[in-house]
Amino acid sequence: MQSGQQHIIVKVSQWLNNAQPVWLCTILKTWGSSPRPIGSMMACTIEGEIAGSISGGCIEEDFLAQLRDGSIKSQYDVEGKPFVVKYGITAEQAARLRLPCGGQLHVLLEYIAPTAENKAVFGALSDALDAHQRISREVDLNTGVISVRHVADDEAVILDEKRMLHSLSPKYKLLLLGAGDVARYVAEMALALEYEVTLCDPRPEYLGNWHVEGVHVTADLPDDVVRDGFSDPYSGVIALAHDPRVDDMALMEALKTSAFYVGAMGSDRTSANRRQRLPELGLSEAEIARLHAPIGINIGSKTPAEIAISVMAEVTRVRHSKDAARSEINL
């Protein structure tokens, strides 16, 4: 599975490689109740095939109407370069487009021809995101030339008179330990939140009846799985096995990595016992302090589905707090 941004970049790359020109729309600025955040994209072929979204559908419909009547292409021909379209500036336009109260969007429109240079750029962007690397595309606003930048800022879009730097993020990944009912619900919720999900359980008897469509399942040793694919800032590790032979093997590796979230299910007593065991596995006090245990936000959950809600709520909160902390560091 791919993140929303990655899906669009891949589609643009495919269209260009099939000799199809592409319109690419990127949200530059928002005011009020914007339906989509800054940096959101929509790509569209000249035949009207769309990937992504920059609104709840109203702006997309308006764009397609202008694509059909040729007004978008006419405006590009006049400008000869990427240009900005402002939506929701007037009350009449906001009402016509059914934008939320006070909502405004500034959208950059780019016409991307299927040249060898553009194919190479979008191929490189696609490869980087597939390798779970952050990357940026830089657009020269005077010429429309797009280039790759192997760095990414915490701001989705950096804009000045000459260029736009658009940071792209890979898909976040979650590794779940233990093939049980809680893992099943966590996996389903994580997929709905656009995580790439892997379920690991080296106990063959537990894997036989466990299946969630879209989840990769492995019986490899948990520490090897963490080491090989879940050690970067876009990874989370959630121990749900209730078996130290499974959970602790993953935790001893995950707590040494830059994974954005590491948590383990269990009671206060179980969690205290785990924290006493972990130093024996070579973990420092600082590394153990990163562990979220007992896992989840306290909502009085009892059933597997309720526990999964509390777990994913905490994962979401930690993920966003780390994003905010990175932004503050860069201020």
Features:
12 helices, five-stranded parallel sheet, 2 domains, 331 residues, Rossmann fold, elongated, five-stranded antiparallel sheet, disordered C terminus, alpha/beta, 14 strands
Q: Could you walk me through the main structural features you see in this protein, from its secondary elements to its overall organization?
A:
With 331 residues, this protein is an alpha/beta fold. The chain folds into two domains: 127 residues, no CATH class; 153 residues, NAD(P)-binding Rossmann-like Domain (Rossmann fold, 3-Layer(aba) Sandwich). It contains twelve helices and 14 strands. Strands 3-2-1-5-4 form a five-stranded antiparallel beta sheet, sandwiched between helices. It has a five-stranded parallel beta sheet with strand order 12-11-10-13-14, sandwiched between helices. Helix 1 packs antiparallel against helix 5, helix 6 packs across helix 12 and helix 8 packs parallel to helix 9. It is elongated and about 70 Å long. The two termini are 33 Å apart. The C terminus is likely disordered.
